[in-house]
Specification:
By secondary structure, the protein is mainly alpha-helical. The chain has 13 helices and no strands. The protein has a domain of about 240 residues.
Length: about 575
């Protein structure tokens, strides 16, 4: 054996190999434990999230069974379209009723002509009464009674004129309400005919777009889950093959055995025939270290390759949810936000439109109430005119009697009385026609208002159904958005956890450092070979034959036996495949 100082200088190499053996076990143990835990967690997460993905993000949702698109999007779009169609039909009926009410209100204005005719007749009576008053006063005591009658007729004429002014005021109010009614109904017709048609088209487009965009998002989500399965399978495959580190550990132990033998007495093993035994052992240890370095390098490359593949896979998963930057994050996330906002805007627009229609209808109903209230006042006015006409007839009769008693007055006023006495009859006829017209108008308006009220209640129900449908879509879409965010965050958390392990755990770096320590040990042994035995290498083929021959004829010690097995075994590359 070489002298002790040469051997002692190998202590550092043996210590490096010992540390290498210990670190290899710990490295693989840590990596295995982490991968097992992560794989289990990913499996649990996927089992938890899969039902939601299957429902909200199925591939080929059109041919799927129960899913968000077939359960909510398509039926809700159809329901909203039908609801809007019903609203259009209802407002189309409103147009007919609006026409009926409009004609009824317009016909009210026909009363103005009748009232004007009555007032014209009253003016004739008033003029006659004024003239009678003047003439009768000229006849002193004889015309006193007729003068009193004339004064009363003048007073009644003025009463009728006052009633006529009330009629005119009411008719002016009705005319103003008619203009207001026309403006409101034109606005409502515009909303129902134009706005609803556009809204139905927008809804159809929006729901179609939402279905196709959800289909696109589904591809991303399902692609992400497929990638997570691939990552999990890769980890499980790594775990399955991680026991290959035993081979590397055994090789390290064998090299340590050779170095330990250099501390013993090789002669006791009947190896005296082998010249420069220390050099032979060092050469064998150097060759084994070279093989070990290749094995560890290959395994390091395979582990690094695994980590790189996992890193790329995780980056791909992250890119599908977080993109290459914040802009892509917002772009991907806003895909659902844009759908949600679009549907919400349509809902708000629809509700605003319906609320405006309902508000307009309430204004019309309120307007109808005012019109009916005004029309109801006509009853009293007509009754007052009827009473006055009766009084006119009575006074007309008294006037004729009075004129019959006074010849002079009769000669002065008889002609005028002849033309005036027929006026009350004309007034009665006009009044009767006006009352008939009035009652017909009043009935028509009340009937129209009743129909309007019934349809108004039905439209409120339709509106409630549409709003409920919109809210259903909004809630479901929000849930879809929430679950999408949950998937992103949960998968992202696992991705970052694994990336953190690969980048910052240190096990891969330690394996690289261990590989470097093997190179240092090999360099140390080769350095000792050069310094102790020169550059010449023993004839290893001769040593091999000598070892094998000695082993056949002598009792083999541990070193000789190890060398025999070393030379008998075929030098085949021990491949370590992790994946």
């Amino acid at each position: 054996m070489a002298e002790a100082t040469a051997v002692t200088r190998l202590d550092r190499e043996k210590q490096n190999l010992k540390m290498f053996k210990e670190k290899v076990s710990r490295i693989y143990e840590d990596m295995g434990n982490f991968m097992i835990t992560t794989a289990d967690q990913m499996d649990d997460f996927r089992k938890m999230i899969t039902p939601y993905v299957d429902y909200f993000y199925p591939l080929n949702s059109g041919s799927s069974g129960d899913c968000f698109v077939t359960d909510v999007v398509i039926p809700s779009g159809r329901e909203l379209g039908n609801a809007i169609e019903r609203a259009v039909n209802i407002t189309a009926g409103d147009a007919e009723m609006n026409g009926k009410v409009s004609r009824a209100i317009e016909s009210v204005m026909g009363l103005k002509k009748s009232i004007d005719n009555i007032l014209w007749l009253i003016d004739e009576i008033d003029i006659y009464s004024e003239n009678t008053l003047v003439i009768s006063t000229k006849y002193g005591e004889e015309g006193m009674s007729l003068a009193r009658i004339s004064k009363e007729m003048v007073m009644m004429a003025r009463l009728v004129n006052g009633i006529g002014m009330q009629f005119s005021d009411y008719l002016d109010m009705l005319d103003g309400h008619k203009d207001e009614f026309t403006a409101i109904q034109e606005r409502l017709e515009s909303l129902s005919h134009n706005h609803f048609a556009l809204m139905k088209e927008h809804l159809s487009t929006a729901f179609g777009t939402m279905a196709s965009e959800l289909e696109s998002v589904s591809k991303h989500v399902n692609g992400m889950l497929s990638n997570s399965i691939e990552a999990e399978l890769s980890m499980k495959n790594f775990i399955k093959n991680i026991q290959m580190e035993d081979i590397i550990r055994q090789k390290a132990e064998k090299i340590m055995f050779y170095l330990d033998q250099l501390d013993g007495d090789a002669g006791s093993e009947d190896c005296s025939a082998i010249a420069n035994l220390d050099a032979v052992v060092l050469h064998v240890a150097s060759d084994r270290l070279s093989d070990l370095e290749k094995d560890v390098s290959r395994q390091y490359g395979e582990v690094s390759g695994f980590c790189n593949r996992i890193t790329l896979l995780l980056d791909e998963i992250l890119s599908k949810f977080y993109g290459d930057g914040i802009a892509d994050v917002e772009k991907e996330r806003n895909r659902l936000d844009m759908i949600y906002t679009r549907i919400e805007n349509l809902k708000d627009e629809y509700v605003r439109c319906m609320e405006e229609i309902i508000s307009g209808k309430r204004m019309l109903l309120n307007l109808f109430g005012k019109i009916i209230d005004i029309l109801s006042l006509f009853d009293g006015l007509f009754s007052e005119i009827v009473d006055i006409l009766k009084r006119f007839e009575a006074l007309n009769m008294i006037t004729r009697i009075e004129l019959a008693r006074h010849i002079k007055l009769s000669r002065a006023l008889g002609g005028a009385l002849t033309s005036v006495k027929i006026l009350p009859a004309k007034m009665k006829k006009i009044l009767k026609e006006s009352q008939d017209l009035y009652h017909g108008i009043q009935k028509n308006i009340k009937d129209a208002v009743a129909m309007y009220t019934d349809n108004f209640r039905l439209q409120e129900k339709v509106l409630d159904e549409c709003i409920a449908s919109m809210k259903t879509v909004s809630v479901k879409l929000y849930e879809s958005q929430k679950y999408y965010g949950d998937i992103s965050k949960e998968i992202g958390r696992y991705c970052w956890k694994m990336l953190e392990f690969i980048d910052g755990n240190g096990s891969i770096g330690v394996l690289s450092a261990v590989m470097e320590s093997i190179r240092e040990a090999a360099a140390g042994i080769n350095g000792r070979l050069d310094s102790e035995y020169g550059v010449s290498k023993p004839d290893m083929e001769s040593v091999k034959r000598l070892v094998l021959e000695t082993a056949e004829t002598a009792q083999c010690g541990s070193l000789l036996d190890a060398l025999r097995h070393e030379f008998e075994s075929k030098k085949t590359a021990e491949r370590v495949i992790l994946f």
